[in-house]
Amino acid sequence: MAGRRGPRTGGGSTRTDILAAAEREFAEQGYEGATVRRIAAAAGVDPAMINHHFGSKDELLMAVMELPLDPRPMVEQALSDRSVGPGKSLLRTALAAWETRPGQLTIGLLRSSLQRDHTVAVLRQVLARRVLGPALDALDVPANEREWRAALLASQMVGLIMVRHVIRIEPLASADHDQVVGLIGPTLDRYLMADLDDCC
User: Fold this and answer.
1) How far apart (Å, rounded) are the C-alpha atoms in residues 156 and 180?
2) Model pTM above 0.90
3) Which pLDDT tens digit goes with each residue over 159-179?
């Protein structure tokens, strides 16, 4: 389908339409497989409009990463429940989030990160700013422990995405949420709350 020149007429805005199309394209194809031409066609605009609004495919990706539901309120809400360990609460919230469209975008980008350093950098920024930072803030983690706890938490969460959604190793790939939380939640609790005397 040929892209149309200029902004859409009628409902919606060009920028919003491009972001929505790019979100789907990056989620389905990853960074390497996504093309500006296909994104423009799905948005019903000329490819030049993407350069006009975003400048490049890299900058479009960064803009798209700001589009999905902001995980910070979800993180804060999960960690406000003191009836269970913070790792278990955070993991249960993450498992549900990964099944949403924004979660699928993150998974698609993680697949791409195996091929391109740029995507790794994007994911690192998003994790640090929108997931790990808010989690550590909510738990009032001391400054000298933040880097270690963030890295340990990320190692488990990213590893779980890889095993469950990318390379799909059974039985973890098809385990229900309660099983995953029961098995892995205590490890996250330890990463978030246990003494780190050996490293800090």
Assistant:
1) 12
2) no
3) 998 899 888 999 999 999 999
